[in-house]
């Protein structure tokens, strides 16, 4: 019997026909990268292949590495495999990787969400025989409100804080979530200040032509009093630190899918939790999987064993694969 | 319901005490009066009785959400809260309504009179007209586990601000055996009649832990009285109008659980209220807490248990004397009257005064404290001779100075994810000690680490899982933790033969090699010494 199109190794997802790895977590010769988050794009690979939209952030994060780029939908032959990248809707530049060998198609989807966030290239279903999926939020309790609804909640909160003379500090991951928030909120409410890690990513994305509202980088000599009514976009780990306290009386918020759970919301000890994720919710996962037409499903990270059982009951041939992907961490781990 | 849900959301959204009090005070000023009363009831633990089994709720919610029941059951522990799981899983409401909190509580109270089909229809209809957060609140009313992150103290403060009645008066009015179904906001709060509730207890005064030892109190040891801190059940015995009532600290009536105390009506005058510890008692000394434990869960007591584990009230304070509230009097006077009262009671009656310890210096008291375990005591209680009897947990006049816990160094061998607040962190661990070359599990522990440590161990568990048994992961034996606990007893149900009281992780012993963790023999020696 021929090798499967993709196999699961202790270094990452491997394609024998092309001799390449997808999002490997140990050094390999050639790595195909779905997107620039730290658990998917790791240092130490001899060669990288990613979308042209993902590459700048990867260079910013990984330094001077050898990255070959590809456009969405562009098909290339590597060894005996046909390989192409397709939008995953997770963050700008993020991709699902389609691998075809001898007419059999597998798709490794990395992280994805199906709602169009107006910033990332919208998710495209890719027909395949086998689909490798995350399930960070693979439980029916996770159902996202639409982005405009959540953005409206954040705007209301910001407006009220500004009116009450409080600063508004919103925690969000530096790559993806922060820019999504920037593009979704009503930037006319007040000035927007950014944490250095957020602003660094903003600069990278702006340089590749992604439009973001004006922001002001928080530097040591910045006087918060010069920017009354500001929204301060911070990394999650900056919340509650001296960095955040310099803004004086403030209301703090955190935007994450985990904020759907009251317990997690309370543990974060932020004043407000906004339910906004760059991962698919329950309905999103199920829709995405259905639209691939795949019969075999591999769940890589998230509530894998429960999700596998659910898929099984829906008639799929489903399995759990152990990987080192982390999905949306609720903890304060920052993407540079 | 919207007003109450808004209150709930505001309380839930802030960790700041002042913001909570503001939200509550505003609510107590403008919410409908019956809603106010019910809110006080909910915040002081007086919930409507559970009207329906959760089994039905789970089934109906899963059915309404079109998911299999097992998937609901798997989701529930991750969310950590049944009411929330149901609220999250249900499809959006298709109708709108704006009924009061009281309306929905009345609806919940009528459920027991309906048959199953009617109940189901009523609940599905409610779910279909409540918005997501209201639905969560409604489910909380149904399941009967309402916690809102507001202590009775905070509520009393807010109520005081809204009504301009002093806090200690309100705290007292809110005690005891009142039910929102049978009273009104006026009768309870604005114009209470002291005769209506003979059983009404006083708010308990609660002590803070004295972390630095008594030398951290910058007053002389002469200012302080000391007693042993008994390991029993705190109880307030109220004798009025020829009746007696025994209240727990959680304001639960325990009168029927400890029928032997009824005898005291014969010896103590009406208008007497005592604060003390209910203890299992043998001749001249308290028995271990394990024996008392047998009586805690029982509403009525079989004869055999009454002889096996008879209880007494070990009194340490007198709050009411000859019908007068003497809490403002100094402890010195209250204690003297208590001793007079107890002296009138025959020696075989179930009442004694917890002895005062004699000491001339803190060092002397420290030496007495060292012997606590021998007396089945948890440490020392310090009470300032000049202090009134305060209400609630207040710093300054009472301190508990507990003995140091017992400790043992153990190896982590299993890990499980937490739920609720700690979903997606590994927080529940099983620990083992060496028995020759084997690791024998002997306890679980869930608390004691910082959030940062939990995050660190979670990352480690993910990478060092040897085997999965459902939600439980067997991990590589590598990390040693110091487990602290308050007591140890024999337990045939446990593989190790022992069970610990209040085990928790005191320290992560990064410095300790695996081989130097304690052994089963060490545990057995502890059992022999302290069991």
Automatic annotation (TrEMBL), chain A:
Domain of life: Bacteria
SUPFAM superfamilies, sorted: Metallo-hydrolase/oxidoreductase
InterPro entries: MBL, RibonucZ/Hydroxyglut_hydro, Xnuc_lig_assoc
GO molecular function: RNA endonuclease activity
Protein name according to UniProt: Uncharacterized protein
Organism for this UniProt entry: Palleronia abyssalis
Automatic annotation (TrEMBL), chain B:
ATP-dependent DNA ligase family profile domain span: 304-435
InterPro entries per UniProt: ATP-dep_DNA_ligase, ATP_dep_DNA_lig_pp_1105_fam, DNA_ligase_ATP-dep_C, DNA_ligase_ATP-dep_cent, DNA_ligase_ATP-dep_CS, DNA_ligase_ATP-dep_N, DNA_ligase_N_sf, NA-bd_OB-fold
CDD domains: Adenylation_DNA_ligase_Bac1, OBF_DNA_ligase_Arch_LigB
Pfam families in alphabetical order: DNA_ligase_A_C, DNA_ligase_A_M, DNA_ligase_A_N
GO biological process: cell division; DNA recombination; DNA repair; DNA replication
EC nos: 6.5.1.1
Gene3D superfamilies attached to this UniProt entry: DNA ligase, ATP-dependent, N-terminal domain, DNA ligase/mRNA capping enzyme, Nucleic acid-binding proteins
Gene Ontology molecular-function annotations: ATP binding; DNA binding; DNA ligase (ATP) activity; metal ion binding
Catalytic activity: ATP + (deoxyribonucleotide)n-3'-hydroxyl + 5'-phospho-(deoxyribonucleotide)m = (deoxyribonucleotide)n+m + AMP + diphosphate
Enzyme class: ligase
Record's keyword terms, sorted: ATP-binding, Cell cycle, Cell division, DNA damage, DNA recombination, DNA repair, DNA replication, Ligase, Magnesium, Metal-binding, Nucleotide-binding
Protein name according to UniProt: DNA ligase (ATP)
């Amino acid at each position: 019997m021929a090798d499967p199109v993709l196999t699961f190794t202790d270094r990452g997802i491997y394609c024998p026909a092309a001799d390449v790895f997808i999002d490997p977590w140990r050094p390999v010769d050639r790595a195909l990268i779905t997107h620039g988050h730290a658990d998917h794009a790791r240092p130490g690979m001899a060669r990288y292949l990613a979308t042209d939209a993902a590459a700048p952030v990867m260079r910013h994060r990984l330094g001077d590495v050898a990255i070959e780029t590809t456009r969405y939908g562009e098909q290339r032959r590597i060894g005996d495999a046909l390989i192409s990248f397709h939008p995953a809707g997770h963050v700008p530049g993020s991709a699902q990787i389609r691998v075809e060998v001898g007419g059999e198609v597998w798709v490794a989807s990395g992280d994805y969400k199906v709602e169009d966030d107006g910033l990332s290239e919208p998710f495209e279903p890719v027909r395949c025989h086998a689909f490798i999926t995350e399930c960070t939020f693979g439980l029916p309790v996770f159902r996202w409100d639409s982005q405009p609804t959540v953005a409206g909640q954040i705007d209301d909160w910001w407006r009220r804080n500004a009116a009450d003379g409080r600063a508004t500090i919103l925690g969000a991951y530096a790559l993806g979530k922060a820019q999504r928030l920037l593009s979704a909120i009503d930037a006319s409410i007040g000035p927007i200040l950014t944490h250095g890690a957020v602003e660094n990513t903003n600069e990278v994305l702006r340089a590749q032509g992604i439009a973001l509202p004006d922001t002001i980088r928080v530097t040591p000599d910045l006087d918060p009093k010069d920017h009354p009514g500001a929204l301060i976009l911070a990394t999650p780990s900056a919340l509650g630190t001296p960095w955040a306290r310099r803004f004086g009386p403030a209301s703090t918020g955190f935007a994450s899918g985990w904020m759907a759970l009251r317990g997690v919301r309370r543990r974060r000890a932020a004043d407000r939790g906004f339910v906004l994720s760059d991962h698919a919710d329950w309905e999103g996962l199920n829709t995405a999987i259905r639209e691939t037409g795949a019969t075999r499903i591999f769940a890589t990270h998230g509530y894998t064993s429960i999700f596998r059982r659910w898929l099984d009951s829906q008639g799929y041939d489903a399995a759990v694969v152990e990987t080192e992907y982390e999905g949306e961490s609720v903890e304060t781990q920052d993407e540079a | 319901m919207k007003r109450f849900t808004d209150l709930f959301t505001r309380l839930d959204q802030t960790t700041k005490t002042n913001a909570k009090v503001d939200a509550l005070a505003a609510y107590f000023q403008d919410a409908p009066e019956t809603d106010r009363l019910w809110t006080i009831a909910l915040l002081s633990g007086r919930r409507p009785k559970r009207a329906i089994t959760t089994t039905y709720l789970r089934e109906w919610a899963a059915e309404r959400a079109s998911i299999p029941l097992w998937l609901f059951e798997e989701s529930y522990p991750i969310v950590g809260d049944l009411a929330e799981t149901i609220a999250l899983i249900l499809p959006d409401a298709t109708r709108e309504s704006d009924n009061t909190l009281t309306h929905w509580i009345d609806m919940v109270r009528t459920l027991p009179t309906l048959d199953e089909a009617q109940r189901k229809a009523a609940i599905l209809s409610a779910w279909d007209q409540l918005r997501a957060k209201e639905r969560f609140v409604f489910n909380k009313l149904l399941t009967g586990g309402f916690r809102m992150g507001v202590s009775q103290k905070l509520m009393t403060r807010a109520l005081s601000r809204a009504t301009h009645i002093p806090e200690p008066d309100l705290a007292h009015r809110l005690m005891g055996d009142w039910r929102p179904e049978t009273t009104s906001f006026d009768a309870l709060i604005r114009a209470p009649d002291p005769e209506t509730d003979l059983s009404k207890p006083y708010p308990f005064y609660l002590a803070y832990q004295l972390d630095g030892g008594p030398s951290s109190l910058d007053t002389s040891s002469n200012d302080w009285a000391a007693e042993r801190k008994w390991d029993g059940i705190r109880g307030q015995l109220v004798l009025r109008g020829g009746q007696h009532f025994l209240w727990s600290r959680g304001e639960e009536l325990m009168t029927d659980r400890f029928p032997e105390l009824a005898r005291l009506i014969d010896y103590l005058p009406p208008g007497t209220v005592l604060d003390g510890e209910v203890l299992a008692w043998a001749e001249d000394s308290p028995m271990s807490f394990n024996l008392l434990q047998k009586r805690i869960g029982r509403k009525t007591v079989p004869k055999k248990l009454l002889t096996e584990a008879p209880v007494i009230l070990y009194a340490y304070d007198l709050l009411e004397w000859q019908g007068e509230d003497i809490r403002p009097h100094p402890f010195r006077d209250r204690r003297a009257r208590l001793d007079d009262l107890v002296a009138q009671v025959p020696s075989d009656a179930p009442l004694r005064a917890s002895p005062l310890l004699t000491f001339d210096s803190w060092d002397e008291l420290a030496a007495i404290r060292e012997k606590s375990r021998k007396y089945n005591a948890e440490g020392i209680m310090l009470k300032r001779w000049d202090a009134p009897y305060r209400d609630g947990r207040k710093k300054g006049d009472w301190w508990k100075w507990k003995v140091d816990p017992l400790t043992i160094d153990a190896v982590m061998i299993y890990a499980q994810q937490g739920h609720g607040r700690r979903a997606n962190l590994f927080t529940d661990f099983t620990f083992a000690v060496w028995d020759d070359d084997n690791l024998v599990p002997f306890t679980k522990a869930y608390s004691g680490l910082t959030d940062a440590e939990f995050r660190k161990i979670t990352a480690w568990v993910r990478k060092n899982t040897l085997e999965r048994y459902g939600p439980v992961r067997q991990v590589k034996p590598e990390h040693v933790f110091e487990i602290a606990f308050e007591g140890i007893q024999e337990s045939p149900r446990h593989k190790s033969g022992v069970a610990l009281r209040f085990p928790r992780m005191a320290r992560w012993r990064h410095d300790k090699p695996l081989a130097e963790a304690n052994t089963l023999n060490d545990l057995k020696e502890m059992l022999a010494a302290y069991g």
